[in-house]
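ESCALATION

Customer reports they have been waiting on this structure for their group meeting. Please prioritize. Original submission:
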Amino acid sequence: MKPLRRREIEQFSLSFLDVICCGFGAIVLLLIITKTMQPMVLEKSTVDLDGQVAAKREAVNTIQGQTRTVKRQISDEQDQLDKVLELLARARRELSEILGEFATTSEQADQQQVENSRLVAARQSLSEEMTRLLGAGFTRQDNVIGGITVDSEYIIFVIDTSGSMQSAAWPHAIRKVSETLNIYPNVKGIQVMNDMGDYMFPNYADEWIPDSPERRREIMMRLSAWAPYSNSSPVEGIEHAIRTFWAPDKKISIYVFGDDFSTRDTIEEVVDRVDIMNAAGEDGSRRVRIHGVGFPVIFQVTNQPTSGFRYAALMRELTFRNDGTFVGLPGLQ
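Update from on-call: job pushed to the front of the queue and completed.
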């Protein structure tokens, strides 16, 4: 009897069973793990995140809306601020103009007050010579000369014949000469020269012209076309008039008509020279009065008013020291 052979176990069959068991174990393990998880938590977390995102978006939209509103308000307020600033700038300009006008008016008022003080000081009662010249009951009706004392028996006109006077102020100057002659109805002598000391009537050089109605008419007629050379300075004419006609027994008035003082002489130098030539007497008065009339040609026609200021300063000082009055005309009309 042959012994029975034991069947050999196939390796393939054992390996397959191992795989099946491992796979089954893995499935069981997966079931166990899956069973311990809570999927609802993941779903809830997702829902919560969506809500937060939506809330954030809504907050962003709200902020953007508020931002647009604030920007519109800022723009509106900026427009209002621009308008306010414009109104403020306009108010400042108007205030500056008003202050400028006030300063000018105040300065003019101060100057007028000074002039009035000088005019009051210059006014004198009729002396014996004035009584003889004008009559005891004389009352001057015309005040265009501005309170100039009329106590002289001799008058001299020193007239600026420069181009500025000829072109801009000559008719006005002629009228002022006529008005000045009218306040002296009768004098013992007249003389007319320009600011250089050149005589209108050369045949009466260094002499007094006898006063008469005919001579006055001739002066006015010749004055309309009289235009000798001038250096735009009254100094030469004033000094020549005093040097030539000063006399201890005569009261003389010099009337200076001009607009300019453009020479290199300083005001102090001119005043000092005139003080020496027209020295004061024992009573403090001077034999020659110096009156001045200023025409504002340099201020209104040219752009360089410095020489006009110098003329006004010179004549104010000369008239003050020599018992006269300076009248600055406000315009050329």
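Sent to customer with the following note: The chain has ten helices and five strands.
Escalation resolved.
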